[in-house]
Design a protein that fits this description.
By secondary structure, this protein is α+β, with helices and mostly antiparallel strands. The protein has 21 helices and 5 strands. The protein has helices at residues 3-6, 34-45, 54-57, 101-114, 119-125, 136-142, 146-166, 171-184, 192-200, 205-214, 219-228, 244-259, 268-285, 292-299, 305-314, 319-327, 346-353, 355-360, 364-375, 380-384, 390-405, and strands at 11-18, 23-29, 59-63, 68-69, 86-91. Helix 8 (171-184) packs across helix 12, helix 14 packs across helix 15 (305-314) and helix 17 (346-353) packs antiparallel against helix 21 (390-405). The chain is elongated and about 110 Å long.
Length: 406
């Protein structure tokens, strides 16, 4: 009896299949390597295939149940193959051939052909075309920025709207209601839930309000700020650009005014004066409010508080743009923001003659929208989508675009 047969391991009977449909039973000891098993399978299904040594490496055995690719250097036992298991003999998929240099060049050429021409190529291609003597400087100057012009238009339209609304006998009551609406929708109103959470932790209410405003109503960030500045001697100082006592007094006056009814004996002149005061209060509520964090950050760079507030106002509270404005030529100036459009200009006359604009100017909501967009340009989209003010804004935009092309 041969020694290898005495000490041979357990013999397994394995079902082997190929992609072509061939199937047979292969008997191998459990200590047989996968590579040897693969050679036996190739001898069975592809006679003479082992003459090419690459044939074995170009095939693989897969355990059908687990879908696992068997490793050539491991034994059948190590791969945990059991008696009567099914194995698949599959030829490996050949890797895609590398592109030829000619194909690479053709692809690069195709990409270059699809690439848009640069400025030099355009000038070269149009060198022989007759010029039309267009003054490009003047043409570029006439293509004014709509947002810049819109501000001037709004300044002038607000004056017209106030005069028209003052003629309405119900104007005082209408604007008292509008004033109350603004009180309800105050942007810098403190989140009561967030404030209560901080005060329950033991922080003073005034200090908690300041922390919430500095941290955009985030309780977590406000708490971190309060802990960090607990020993700061200026922790209770009012925020730059804000005077809480005046705001509180103004809020009290507004609420008192809202509850008081109009006097039956008030003359037309008194009503007009009352309406003027309401306009002033609405304008004060819509006054620009600088981002406190941006104010503090820019003041830490050495800029004065007033010029920082001016910079943020000119640049819509964008800190980086405000910093560039402060370091640059400071154009436009804050005074330029309050200038209206020439009331005798064809543009303004065309806007006033539009029936949709005329009707909109008699609506108090339109005046409120103009005031809001004047101090908060980022809210323009909101008013463009409003069913009452949207049509007015659309007509202004269309008239501007039409006259700007002529």
């Amino acid at each position: 009896v041969q020694e290898e047969k005495i000490f041979a391991g357990k013999v397994l009977k394995l079902h082997v299949c190929t992609m072509e449909g061939a199937e047979w039973l292969e008997e191998v000891p459990e200590d047989t390597t996968v590579e040897k098993l693969k050679e036996r399978c190739l001898k069975h299904c592809v006679p003479g295939s082992l003459e090419d040594p690459k044939t074995v490496t170009h095939h693989k055995l897969i355990h059908a149940t687990s879908e696992k690719v068997l490793t050539d250097t491991k034994t059948v036992l190590e791969e945990n193959i059991q008696d009567r298991d099914v194995l698949l003999l599959i030829k490996k998929r050949a890797p895609p051939p590398l592109p030829k240099m000619a194909d690479v060049s053709a692809e690069e050429k195709r990409k270059q052909e699809q690439k848009a021409p640069d400025k030099d190529a355009i000038l070269k291609a149009t060198a022989n075309l007759p010029s039309r003597n267009v003054d490009r400087t003047v043409a570029h100057h006439n293509m004014r920025d709509f947002q810049t012009e819109l501000r001037k238009i709004l300044v002038s339209l607000i004056e017209v709207a106030q005069k028209l609304l003052a003629l309405n006998p119900d104007a005082v009551e209408l604007f008292k209601k509008a004033n109350a609406m603004l009180d309800e929708d105050e942007e810098d109103r403190v989140d009561e839930i967030a404030l209560r959470q901080l005060t329950e932790m033991g922080f003073p209410e005034s200090r908690a309000v300041k922390a919430l405003r500095l941290n955009h109503m985030s309780v977590t960030q406000a708490m971190e700020w309060l802990i960090e500045h607990a020993d700061d001697p200026t922790v209770d100082a009012p925020l730059p650009g804000q005077t809480p006592s005046e705001a509180a007094a103004e809020a009290g006056a507004s609420s008192a005014e809202a509850t008081a009814g109009p006097s039956s004996e008030a003359s037309g002149e008194e009503a007009k004066d009352e309406l003027t005061e309401i306009f002033k209060k609405i304008r004060r509520k819509r006054e620009f409010r600088p981002d406190p964090r941006a104010v503090v950050a820019l003041m830490e760079m050495g800029f004065d508080e007033k010029e920082v507030v001016d910079a943020l106002r000119v640049n819509n509270n964008q800190q980086n743009a405000a910093c560039e404005w402060l370091l640059g030529d400071r154009k436009p100036s804050p005074e330029d923001l309050d200038k209206g459009i020439d009331t005798n200009s064809p543009l303004f006359q065309a806007i006033l003659e539009n029936p949709v604009v005329q009707l909109g100017l008699t609506n108090p909501k339109t005046l409120l929208a103009f005031e809001d967009m004047l101090e908060n340009p980022l809210n323009s989209t909101q008013w463009m989508n409003d069913p009452e003010t949207g049509p007015v804004m659309l007509q202004i935009s269309r008239i501007f675009q039409t006259l700007n092309r002529t």
